[in-house]
């Protein structure tokens, strides 16, 4: 892998920053706020930031870069798909529980629902995230989607995944700001009490975590290399149907490899096209 040392340094920084963010969210709710409970009180609201930062930010961030860990490149693509899908599913579950907590808290205290920009953008992000998860399973994990659909959807999958992730970080920043303005009365937020400083630092860390993940996920030379037997196109079939083999869709043995590997100019161009379309030749 090119720049292996730099990748490791960025990965270690992302893990550290993400981990410290989770710890800071716990320090915030336990040291400065009412702790955690599930009884309609402020303790129930506090699950909202803690689960969002743990699941929707940290775990989702790891899920996004999991294909890029070089020591996983020898693992099968299918296993990596399960890990990527599994981590994203855990993130989704934690996000839903965190939403239930805030809605229940609002209902228990007769606070109106869905009035703020934070809640609008947040709910939109959760809806698109569920859609992304559902389509990810349906198209890339289950063996039914035709290869040309996988090829067409992959760049959209990557783009929407990264956009949702960035939106989640922005929503978390809005939520943090709102909460500090609502909760800090005397001294007020504007007086910069220690809680405000701690939570402002948490916001900064979330931005740094997001930037590190987006950087790692957008370097073309750090993407998982195509499997040995993935870039195949039968010379007679220079169509999208030959691009994906290392998946639930098709398995080709090494013995078939020499038969299947493209040696025509048309097939070579087709391969380049697929690579450029999604920067990926395995889906
Ligand atoms: C409320 C989503 C992160 C603080 C809400 C509501 C939603 C939501 C849908 C509306 C609940 C209702 O109307 O009953 C999200 C999402 C987040 C996120 C998707 C992740 C990206 C955070 C964070 C905080 C936070 C990190 C920090 C404390 C609040 C507060 C409210 C709230 C104070 C109540 C006021 C309001 O409705 O805007 N959130 N939230 N949120 N959230 Fe978040
Ligand atoms: C790649 C996001 C769910 C299959 C990616 C990438 C992102 C992403 C950002 C680009 C990673 C990279 O360039 O290294 C998401 C999000 C999901 C989700 C946010 C959930 C909401 C799924 C599911 C599957 C899936 C359920 C089914 C297995 C894939 C595949 C790749 C990919 C096959 C290409 C990996 C490669 O470059 O070799 N996803 N994804 N995704 N995702 Fe997802």
Automatic annotation (TrEMBL):
The keyword Transferase does not apply. GO terms for biological process: ascorbate homeostasis; intracellular iron ion homeostasis; multicellular organismal-level iron ion homeostasis; response to iron ion. Keywords: Cell membrane, Electron transport, Heme, Iron, Membrane, Metal-binding, Oxidoreductase, Translocase, Transmembrane, Transmembrane helix, Transport. It is found in: Apical cell membrane. Signal peptide: none annotated. InterPro entries: CYB561/CYBRD1-like, Cyt_b561/ferric_Rdtase_TM. Gene3D superfamilies: 1.20.120.1770. It catalyses: Cu(2+)(out) + L-ascorbate(in) = Cu(+)(out) + monodehydro-L-ascorbate radical(in) + H(+); monodehydro-L-ascorbate radical(out) + L-ascorbate(in) = monodehydro-L-ascorbate radical(in) + L-ascorbate(out); Fe(3+)(out) + L-ascorbate(in) = monodehydro-L-ascorbate radical(in) + Fe(2+)(out) + H(+). It holds the Pfam family Cytochrom_B561. Its EC number is 7.2.1.3. PROSITE patterns: CYTOCHROME_B561. Residues 227-283 are annotated as: Disordered. The chain crosses the membrane at residues 7-30, 50-70, 82-103, 123-144, 156-176, 196-217. Residues 13-218 form the Cytochrome b561 domain. The keyword rRNA processing does not apply. Residues 254-283 have a biased composition (Basic and acidic residues). It is a multi-pass membrane protein. Its cofactor is heme b. This is Plasma membrane ascorbate-dependent reductase CYBRD1. It comes from Taeniopygia guttata (Zebra finch).
